[in-house]
Amino acid sequence: MKTSFFPKTSLGRKSGYLFLMFILMIFAGRFISDMTNNAIEYPNPINSPIFGTFIYLTFFIAGFSFFAGLKAIFKMKERSILIYLATVICGYFAIGGLTLLIVGTVQSIL
C-alpha cells in the first residue's frame, strides 16, 4: 500500500475524525475559557465545571484517537500521513492528560 495523505481503512478514518474533533475541541475550549473569564490555574470539574469537564473530555478524545491510530497503523497497516501525525500529536496530549489526572489525584490525596 502506498503512502497517502488521507486514511484508507475504516479505523484510520475514525482516528482521523477523532483527531479533527480533538482540534475543534481545543478551539472551543479556548472560546469557553474566554467567555467565562476563567483565571484559575488548574481547572477541574469541581471548581470550574464547564471548563474542567471540557478539558478532560478533550484529553480523552486525544487518547481514543491515539489508540485508534496505533491500531490502524499496526493491525490494519494504515500508511497515511494524517494518521501518523494524529497519532504523534494525540499521543503527546493523551500522556499530558493522564499526567494531569495523576497529579490532580495525588494532590487531592495529600
Q: What are its keywords?
A:
single chain; 110 residues; mainly alpha; elongated
What would you say this structure looks like, in words?
This protein is an all-alpha fold and 110 residues long. It has one domain. The chain contains three helices and no strands. The relative contact order is 0.19.
Strand content: under 5%
Which ranges are low-confidence, i.e. pLDDT below 50, for 5 or more consecutive residues?
none
Distance between the termini: 52 Å
Mean pLDDT: 84
Order of helices and strands: HHH
Derived structural class = mainly alpha
SS summary, helix count: 3
Rounded to an integer in angstroms, the radius of gyration calculated over CA atoms is 16 Å
Number of strands: 0
Task: Estimate nothing, just give the exact number of structural domains.
Answer: 1
The main β sheet shows up as:
none
Percent in helix: over 70%
**Shape, per Cα inertia axes:** elongated
Brief synopsis:
The chain has 110 residues and is mostly helical. Helix content is 74%, strand content 0%.
